[in-house]
Structures are given as structure tokens and as C-alpha cells.
Design a protein that fits this description.
The protein is α/β, with parallel strands linked by helices. Helix content is 26%, strand content 29%. Strands 4, 19, 21, 22, 24, 25, 26 and 28 form an 8-stranded antiparallel β-sheet that branches.
Amino acid sequence: MGLIRATAAATAVAATTVATLVSTTLVGTATAAAAGTPAVAATISVDTAHPAGRLPADFVGLSFEMRELGIGNLDARKGNLAAMLRTLGPSNLRIAGNTLDRDTLWVPQGQQPPDPLPDWVKDVVTAADVQRLDTFLRSTGYRAEVGINVGRWDAVAGADQAKAMSTILGNRLVATECGNEPDQWIGKGFRPAGYAYPAYRQDWEACAATVANHRLAGPDTASPTSSWASSLAQDESALTMLTVHQYTMDPTGTADRLLSPATVTGQRNAALPNLTVANAAHLPMRIDETNSAYGGGIDGVSNKQASALWALDYSLEMAQLGLAGINFHGGLGVCNQPIWNGKWQLYTPMCALDTTNQAAQVYHAMPIYYGLWMARQLGPGTFLPVTLQTAANATAYAVRGDDGHVRLAVIDKDSTTPLHLDLTVADRDCHATAGVLRMTAGGLAADDTAVNGSTVDSAGKLHIGRQDRVKVSNGTVHLDVAAGSAVVISL
């Protein structure tokens, strides 16, 4: 039984040559971090004989508010947003959010918006906006879930929107979402006190009856542990995807808390109950709105390197758990500024550096964007069981890609403790090289995140060139992983 002890790279190693057991030993040396903290040893064993669940190509997705559609964003002909999504790679885009029910009015084709508009309306969406979305999806290779306003339900408008989306988007429409966060409608004034799941189910069915293509997602509950999601999955045979929201922290969280082992456990435990029900109902489940903290994020955490490490770890953790995908929520306003209803632009993967760039739809990649990009590099493929032994705050994942390569992500979430790795490929006596992608920054609270020193340019592209090449000599690779950084290693 062969042993491979951690390697990396874009080297073309056929699946048939991968050993049955990959044992990656990451051994700390006596070297110290810049702050004087010695490196910590870690041992990773990867079992290639017992492949686990899938890492789908569209697992790591994005989520935007409905207002972005109504105000003319998501336009492939303008700015660099389409290029930024192509840089991430084709995936899943969800469009709904709080602005869906709160202030978005659908106006059927051939009709004019009411004059004056109702007081609650801030955004108007029409078939022309859906046509623009279709062009955007075609340009990026993405598919989408799109919401219909059920909080302020209008049967005629809802039916017209459902028909327009199905006709225009075709198979690029993964599913229609009927409303957003209905478990909070009482507090938002959309429903009277006492509104509960039985009444919501009637509302959902009224919306679902308008969707002729029978692709329906829901219930998009605000609480990941809400019983409404499991009830809908069990009650409605018309449901084709279970969707819930899950934010990791409240707005008082810290970087240490975000990256703690307790947070990893909490995220898993929050998702498991509904995932169990979805699996029993043979439904895919997406956490279709998520990020580091609700309320727009936390300054100094959601917009820094800590969020990039968390996003990489969280993406792979949730995929390995068995979800169909997750969608990271954000907006297209000015970085670190309020965007709508006082919500801050802190956790978004991309934002404009100033109002001039905002008007031109030219966006800047925030640290979390790079975490998503790194996660995308492991798949699509099949997870391989990993055993990690270390005293460090670190995690590791392994995926056998559909292209035959085995790739590992190692995430050092400690702010001061580096890893100096001795990686031994025990069943290889040939001389070769391995490639390494490194996601680094000046610290957990820094916003200079880069991959191999490169950042996304104003055209929305990430030019890394060649990966770092590490010599494999007599089966051994020596590799350093900086504190507060992550690497993706390909075999």
C-alpha cells in the first residue's frame, strides 16, 4: 500500500498512479515566526481508497439583492463584474435578499409603473432586466435562482414574472424562489402577529402555482435551524431545492472567533438537521445566503484576511458535509460604506473603490473573493478522507479532481504560528516538481490578500502565471506555510 506524503501541483499525475493511501506529514521545525512563535507540527493522512462525497463545480456561488437587478447592475456590457465571475469560474448566482419583498415591484411587459409609485417601492424590475440578466449569465457561464416578491404578494405580477423568467432564462434559471426570509415577515410588517408555518405554506403554494417550469426553491428562512425548512421539504413534493440562510456570527464577532474550531463545529451543527431532512426527501440543499456576519459584516474582520481564510475553510467544510452549494452574499456599492437601508458594505466579495467606479460598474476584489477563488481550485471532484493531527489552529481538505489530480488545501488560521513542512512522497523515487498556490496577507487584520503575490486587476482578471514550483527530490518536498495563510497543493 503506497504512501504519498503531501505534495502539490499542477503536474499531470494520472489517477491510476495515485497511491491507495496518501499520508501527508507536515513536520514543524525549530524555526520561529517573525513574532517569535515556533512552527507547529501537523500530520495529515489522506485515504484515497475510500472516496467520499462530491465537490460540485457550482458549489461556491454568489448572492445579490434583487435591487442590483432593478437598478441596472449585473450587466455584461459594462465594467468588470462579468470578468470577475469568469475569473472565479462558472457557478451559481442567487438574486433575492431583503430588498425582494421589502421594496421591489415587478411591472409586466407593456405596462407602465404606477404613478406615483407606492410608498414602499424603491426598485422596479421588468422583463428587460431579466433579459440583461440572461446576457450576464450567458457571458459568465453561471446559472441562477431568482426570487419573486411574496411578502407583498400580487398574483398577477407574480405569474407574469414567473413566466418571463422561465421564457427568457430557460435552463439558466435553476429555480424560482418564492419570497425571502418568511420567518421574519412579522417583524418586517409583511404579516400580522401569529403568522406561522401553516399560513406561510399557503402563501408558498400560491406562488408555486404560478411557476410553470416546476423548478422551485425555498423557503429561504433567515434561521438555519428554523423548522419551516424541514417542514416544507417534507410537505411539498413540488419543491426541487431546499434553501436556507446561515450567517456565522452576529455583528459583535471577532477574527479569533470566526476562525475558531468552535465556529467550525457550530456551522456544521446548524446545517445538519435540515440537510438530513433534505437527503431523506432526495432534495439538494443550498445555503443560498451566507457570510461571516449578518447585518453587512464586521469592520476589521469581514473585510480582511481573516474572512478569506474563513471563506476557504467554510466552503470546503460545507461541501464535505454534503450540501449542494453555498452562496456568499454581497452588494455592488462602495467598499466599506452603507449600501441600502443602512447596511454596510463590509462582507461583500467585490465592491467599488469610489462612486466613480461604482457608476462605471468597475469593482475591486475584497479578501473574501480570494478565499472563494482558492476553494474553486480544488474541484470539481470527490473528497478524500483526511486525518489531521496538530496542535495548531489549522484545517485540511483533500479532493481527487475529475481531471485525476489530488489537491489538498491546508489552512493555517493562527495569526502568529507558521508551519514549516517536510512533505515526503514515499512511493515516488522519481525527480519531479510540485506546484503550490499561496493565499497570503500582512496579517489576519490586513486587506492586502493576494495569491502568489497577484491580485485581481481592474479588468477583473487574476494573472498568477506559473504556480510556485517545489522540487520533489527522493520523494521529499520542503514547504513553508506562513501564519494566517493558506496553500493549495496539487498532486
